[in-house]
Structure prediction request, 310 residues.
Amino acid sequence: MANSDSKVSDFLDPKVLGRLIGLPLDARHAMMGSVSGRHRSPVRGSSLEFAEYREYVPGDDTRRLDWRTWGRSDRYYIKEFEADTNLRLCLIVDTSGSMGYGEAGETRLDYTRSMAGTLAYLAAHQGDAIGIFPAGKDGLKDEIPARRGPVHLGVVMDRIAALAANGEADLVAAIHEAAEKIPQRALVVIISDLLFQPAPLKEALQHLRFRKHDVAMFHLLDRNEIEFDFDRPTKFVDLEGGPSLLADPTLIGKKYREAVANYLETVSDICAQTGTDYQKVTMDTPYDQTLAGFLLGRNPRTRKTAANTG
Prediction:
């Protein structure tokens, strides 16, 4: 993986956090978690079924401390129960070379860092677990499973800062792998440019939905990729290592735009068929505006208000 010089301060904007902190990150489907939380559970009532012990981390509910274990080991452990609810936010991030498209400091991956970091912070602020699953050439690479607590948030932020766009990435394989590795219902957010033939994506998204995950897709596009606003012969470079192509946009522009329209329709249809919350994003849209629309669209009260006013 290529080295990255990014720091958390480069992509986490306090002003944006201040504007978004009052918007809850809601799941569309019932969640099952390991701590008391704000999200619906598929199990009615409070479960007394013990699951496991885990070591206490700052921010945990001290009422769940097991004092007998502390008396025996002089260490703090938390009791976890199966039906207590919280949200697991799992971020699957495309790290292919094409995610490096754009000007320095304004690449697709820079946009991704800002969105992923902000979502992670908002989830942690409301007491939810967060994890990150970067998609590499052979699937997942250096993933961090979802956990709670400020220390873990720092680990996730450092991993986001270290993301680098390099070579090919098999996003479909990464999604399948994540579907098997994420143990309980989660909000799985996928961030990618989806620059591949979309047909295999359907089975991967169905895999996540079969595992009862709530799935959202941020599809990042540069406006030039859609509008193809070039007026002279241009050399197009494959950022993932393929051959370059010299083309005259005046000759291929019409067919290119038709192909892109068909591609976008296919992606949208796949997401609709699999129950995926599809967000098409052009990178000239400020990322905080993108996230505000996403959060408001998932909140039952604001979603109903928007539907009534529309």
Summary: Residues 226 and 260 are 7 Å apart (CA to CA). Confidence is low (pLDDT under 50) at residues 33-48, 305-310. The first helix runs from residue 8 to 11.
